[in-house]
Amino acid sequence: MKLRDFYYDLPEELIAQEPITERDMSRLLVLDKSTGEIEHCNFRDILEYLNEGDCLVMNNTRVIPARLIGIRKNGMGSMELLLLNRRGKDIWEVMVRPGKRAKTGAVFLFGDGELEGEVIEVLEGGNRLVRFNYDGIFEEVLDRLGKVPLPPYIKKELADRERYQTVYSRYEGSAAAPTAGLHFTKELLRQLLDSGVRTAYLTLHVGLGTFRPVKVSNIEEHKMHSEYYELNARNAEIIYSTKSSGGRIICVGTTSTRTLESIMQKNGSLKEDKGWTDIFIYPGFKFKIADGIITNFHLPESTLLMLVSALAGRDNIMKAYKEAVKERYRFFSFGDAMLII
């Protein structure tokens, strides 16, 4: 398939710049993937579309304040580092701007020298390995000095960091939030459990590669970034027993979807597993576990748009997106939601 097959026009004013006051009062577009029928409601109405015995699968990763702004030691000008993957106790793979100042051996200072980073290797593709030096506990230092790395299309600073975390976030490690989960409140989750909907949790640490544009015209030539995931035995059993008993597996977000389908592709069955995945899901993909998905609206020509097109059909998705633009839905990370069932 061609990249242009996943393009749509989006007025810039529909890109949400901040979260709404109440998480579960975002709008919800419901798409029937079999018929293409569309309904409009609010997110808290999702109770009406989930059945007793269904299972929601949620990504409990937590975003770290991975954006560091400092200066080059014995040099001029500011530097920005984005922490991507931890490679050792004090060694991280990072994205650096401007890169020309980040040669091997370069040292950067953050917070008046409270944190020091030295470039120890330039990686293929331009990222760097940086070794950090500090006193105390790294996570506490990062919490004081770091900023939340919001997507590039969000221009406003976030007043409350917790609004870029899901209410069930637990394990730190992501550079971006699994944004489909931002719509849930603890009260809504309780109501879902009371109605007989099951919940299961996995962890996939989201990297900034999720925002990397596709640069090839033939999408099959695109290479996905790798992200680390974990699914424990207890949650694997919840998902497996739901599927075995005829309940639907509804993934909250593309990250949960990619994790489950990666495990199925790797092992042929759903069981406890952990590792790295670079699975690329686009139309033609045969889903083995996911029956539906709760997701936000994605960028034109993005791998995330391709994933939901694989589940619901490209024509259904492009029709739904055209309808969402017409109805003035809010798009992307802080925007409204879509339920595909």
Order of helices and strands: EEEEEEEEEEHEHEEHEHEEHHE
* Total number of strands: 17
Tally of separate helices: 6
* Rg value: 20 Å
| The level-1 CATH class of the largest domain | Alpha Beta
In helices, the fraction of residues equals 10-25%
Going across the major beta sheet, what is the strand order? 2-1-17-16-14-3-12-13-15
Shape: globular
**Which CATH-level-2 architecture of the largest domain?**
3-Layer(aba) Sandwich
Intertermini distance: 24 Å
The CATH topology of the largest domain comes to QueA-like
Write the layout of secondary structure elements.
Layout (H helix, E strand, L loop, with lengths): L26 E5 L6 E5 L12 E5 L1 E3 L3 E6 L5 E9 L4 E7 L9 E4 L4 E8 L5 E7 L3 H8 L25 E4 L11 H9 L3 E7 L22 E5 L1 H12 L4 E4 L1 H14 L5 E5 L14 E5 L6 H10 L1 H13 L10 E4 L1
Parallel strand pairs: 1-17, 3-12, 3-14, 4-11, 14-16
Antiparallel strand pairs: 1-2, 5-6, 5-8, 6-7, 7-10, 8-9, 9-10, 12-13, 13-15, 16-17
Helix pairs in contact: 5-6
